[in-house]
Specification:
Bound molecules: zinc ion
Oligomer: single chain
Number of strands: 4
Strand content: 5-15%
Shape: elongated
Structural class: mainly alpha
Order of helices and strands: HHHEEHEEH
Number of domains: 2
Radius of gyration: 20 Å
Strand order of the largest sheet: 1-2
Length: about 170
C-alpha cells in the first residue's frame, strides 16, 4: 500500500515527523516521487541494519545525497528545539531533515537501536531506546497486543488438544 499517495499525505508525514506545520504550499508530483524514493531507501536500509547487515550502497548514496541538502536551522523556542525551514523550497529542506535524521539513527548516533517489528504482518521499523533493548514491536497498542492475543489463543487451543505449556507467552 502506498502511504504517500498524495501531497496531503506527504505533508501529514512531515508533520508526524515534527517538521512543518501542515500548511506548506502544494508539492509537485516530482517531489512526491522523491519523497517516496527517500522513504523506501530509509526503509530498506533500516531493514538491513535491523537484520544485522549493511545497507545497499545505492540506498546509502541516496540518503547521503539528501542529507547533504540540509538547510534547516535548529532553533530553541519556548524551551523546545524545533526545526525552522528556509523560506524557499521548504519541502525539499524538510526531506533533507528526514534524511539527516535517518543517517544519524541508522548509523548508530541516535539513542537506541533500529529494530524490525516482530509482528509477522507488520515489518515496521522502530528505534528501541528502552533500557534493556528488549522491545519487540513497533507499538504495544497495536502489534504487541496482536501477538499476545495470538499467543493466548495458541495456548488455549494447545491446552484443549492436550499440549499444555506448548505456547510461549
Ligand atoms: Zn508492528
Amino acid at each position: 500500500m502506498e502511504r504517500l499517495a498524495t501531497p496531503a499525505h506527504l505533508r501529514a508525514w512531515l508533520t508526524a515527523n515534527g517538521i512543518g506545520d501542515g500548511t506548506d504550499p502544494p508539492v509537485s508530483d516530482a517531489l512526491l516521487r522523491d519523497a517516496r524514493d527517500l522513504r523506501e531507501a530509509i526503509h530498506r536500509a533500516g531493514t538491513s541494519i535491523a537484520a544485522g547487515g549493511v545497507p545497499d550502497p545505492a540506498d546509502e548514496e541516496l540518503l547521503n545525497r539528501w542529507a547533504a541538502r540540509h538547510r534547516a536551522r535548529l532553533i530553541l523556542t519556548g524551551g523546545q528545539a524545533r526545526w525552522q525551514l528556509p523560506g524557499t523550497d521548504r519541502v525539499r529542506a524538510a526531506l533533507a531533515i528526514v534524511a539527516l535524521d535517518a543517517v544519524a539513527t541508522l548509523g548508530g548516533q541516535g539513542d537506541g537501536v533500529v529494530k524490525r517489528c516482530e509482528q509477522r504482518t507488520c515489518g515496521g521499523l522502530f528505534v528501541d531506546a528502552s533500557r534493556g533493548r528488549r522491545r519487540r514491536w513497533c507499538s504495544m497498542a497495536t502489534c504487541g497486543n496482536k501477538v499476545k492475543k495470538a499467543n493466548l489463543k495458541a495456548a488455549r487451543d494447545g491446552a484443549e488438544e492436550g499440549h499444555p505449556g506448548g505456547a510461549e507467552l
